[in-house]
Amino acid sequence: LAMSRAAGARLITWQVLALVLASVGCSAFAQIALKHGMAAAPVQAALAAGGGAWPVALAVATSPGVVVGLFAYGLSALLWLFVLARLDVSVAYAFVALGFLLVMAFGALVFKEPLTARKVAGTLLVAAGIWLVASGAAPAPAPPPPAAASGREGG
Question: CA 97 to CA 55: how far, in whole Å?
Answer without folding.
Answer: 35
